Amino acid sequence: MDYRLTEEIMKKMGEGVLVIRNAGANVNAVKEALKMLKPEEVIFMPHTDCAAMKLVKSVITGEKNVDIEVEEKLVSQFKGKDVKDLDRVNAQVGEKLIKEVLPNAKVTTELVDVSKIKWPERKTVYFLLKSQSKYEKDMVGGYILQAPSKEDLSADVKIAESLGLKLQKSEF
After folding, report:
1. Cα 94 to the chain's mean position, in Å?
2. Helix, strand, or coil here: 92?
3. How many whole angstroms separate alpha carbon 93 and alpha carbon 118?
4. Hey, which residues does 41 pair with through a beta bridge?
5. Over 80: is that where the pLDDT of 155 sits?
6. What count of other Cβ atoms lies within 10 Å of the Cβ of residue 75?
7. Do residues 3 and 141 lie in contact, with contact meaning Cβ atoms separated by under 8 Å?
8. Contact (Cβ atoms closer than 8 angstroms) between residue 138 and residue 121
9. Residue 36 near residue 148, CB atoms below 8 Å
10. What pLDDT does residue 160 have?
């Protein structure tokens, strides 16, 4: 979802590539879609300084409350985990779940250190895109939610709106 990763993902997009982007690189929210898609290869790209992981930490430590759907799809999988380094824990949790859901797929995890990449100016908008969609220039700097179906992104839309983001475009 994070606007800072759009150009990094664009570098990896080729013919036949399907992209799923959501808040927190949350595999739990899209595991059913992954089962249906049955990809042969998955490049899992969570990142450091993740706002969704900050939200998870604040919920676990009792500082914030979230919608029940966000709790079930995102927060619940981190209860009992080390909240000091949630970005790293998220990468481990997501990779493990991908391997459980897709035991025959080649899985590569790249924890993107956002302090080491150049990112565009932030826009306070988000885009709802289908998995096979390519990015347009005006999307760079915006947050992108991308999955096979809108239902896969319902918790993510709530997170985007809680961050004050406005819907710019929906393909659903």
Report:
1. 10
2. helix
3. 27
4. 106
5. yes
6. 23
7. yes
8. no
9. yes
10. 93
The answer for 54, left when phi > 0, alpha when psi is -120 to 50, beta otherwise, is alpha
Where do the DSSP E strands lie in 28-160?
A: 41-44, 106-109, 125-130, 143-147
What CATH number belongs to 3-170? 3.40.1050
Q: Which H/E stretch holds residue 69?
A: helix 68-73
- Can you list the positions of beta strands (E) in the chain? 41-44, 106-109, 125-130, 143-147, 166-170
Token couple for 69:
């759907």
Unique residue bearing structure tokens 């179906």 = 149
**CA 172 to CA 96: how far, in whole Å?**
30
The tokens for 22 are 């959501």
Cα–Cα dist 78/90, whole Å: 8
Question: Residues with Cβ < 8 Å from 16, sequence gap 6 or more?
Answer: none
Q: 41 falls in which pLDDT band (50, 70, 90)? A: very high
